[in-house]
Design a protein that fits this description.
Radius of gyration: 25 Å
Number of strands: 7
Order of helices and strands: HHHHEHEHHHHHEHEHEHEE
Shape: elongated
Largest sheet: 5 strands, mixed
Strand order of the largest sheet: 5-4-3-6-7
Length: 297
């Protein structure tokens, strides 16, 4: 990927120097970079193109995570993209399964002579179905992904092995790459639009006279608290200042401007205040969705 490596090095340098601020910006730029990695990846002639694509994403992801291990959004987006690749491969395999006919004993000679569709035994077909439709595992997303081999390649090895199978493989490879790029684009849109659906939950999760602790500065948390205030909820917020950058001071100022009762505390005072709060608000991008984690005390 000669065209992508300069982008990877540049983003790694930004992560090391903390040039990208906020989980939203980090998550979005990580997703955009991985989309470029997928777009520029050359799909070779290996038997399992999805695994090769996942290996390319995983290699870049490991560099990004090592650049700033405490920025959780990076690792979560990498895992999300790896899951997308696996899902698209499973989807393609499921489509291949639908196009196969199961070999059964039949006295109808016409069917066996004229049915030119690839045929597999029931046992082979069932084995592929179990592998393809197996539930994804979060623990293996950064390890070797058990991406199922395409059914079309298995079928072609049992039947004709001419140029048609090769052209079919190329077509399915292009479709896999296109579908993964489109899915990552949807992920970027999801990151950009995550604030509104999260804010809609404020009235259900924040009750009257709540005491809330939040850490640093997060747009998601800010919009969430704004929504609760607009719904006439009465609550108080303690904001840890977030030294040495003191992002908590900025968030506190923004909350006060919206009429939210806010108090800035030092980071060392968090342990003393924790017994007084009802809820801790933190923003993060989990493995498969963008969400606001609310930890009830």
């Amino acid at each position: 990927m000669p065209d992508v490596q300069p982008l990877v090095r540049d983003f790694v340098l930004k992560l090391k120097r903390r040039k990208v601020e906020g989980s939203h910006a980090v998550a979005r730029q990580t997703a955009e970079l991985l989309r470029s990695v997928v777009s520029q990846h050359r799909m070779g002639s290996s038997a399992n193109q999805a695994a090769a694509l996942a290996d390319a994403v995983r290699a870049v992801g490991e560099q990004l995570i090592a650049a700033n291990p405490i920025e959780l959004a990076v690792g979560n987006i990498v895992r999300r993209v790896l899951h997308i690749i696996k899902e698209e491969d499973i989807s393609a395999t499921a489509v291949g399964i639908e196009g196969l006919s199961v070999t059964v004993d039949s006295d109808d000679e016409y069917d066996s002579e004229h049915d030119d569709r690839p045929s597999l035994s029931a046992a082979v077909l069932a084995a592929h179905a179990r592998n393809a439709l197996r539930a994804p595992s979060l623990q293996t997303l950064l390890e070797d992904i058990p991406v199922s081999p395409a059914i079309s390649r298995t079928a072609s090895s049992a039947g004709d092995s001419d140029g048609k199978s090769k052209s079919g493989d190329k077509s399915s490879t292009r479709k896999l790459k296109h579908d993964v790029i489109a899915a990552i684009g949807d992920l970027i849109d999801e990151i950009d639009s995550c604030y509104e659906p999260i804010s809609e939950q404020a009235v259900e999760l924040i009750h009257q006279n709540e005491v809330i602790l939040t850490l640093g500065r997060s747009r998601t948390v800010k919009e969430f608290l704004y929504a609760a205030k607009e719904k006439k909820r009465s609550f108080r917020v303690f904001v840890a200042e977030g030294a040495p950058r003191y992002q908590g001071h900025i968030l506190a100022k923004e909350l006060v401007e919206k009429g939210v009762q806010t108090t800035v505390i030092t980071d060392s005072a968090v342990f003393a205040m924790i017994s007084r709060v009802n809820m801790v608000h933190m923003c993060g991008y989990c493995s498969f969705a963008n969400s606001l984690f609310l930890l009830q005390i």
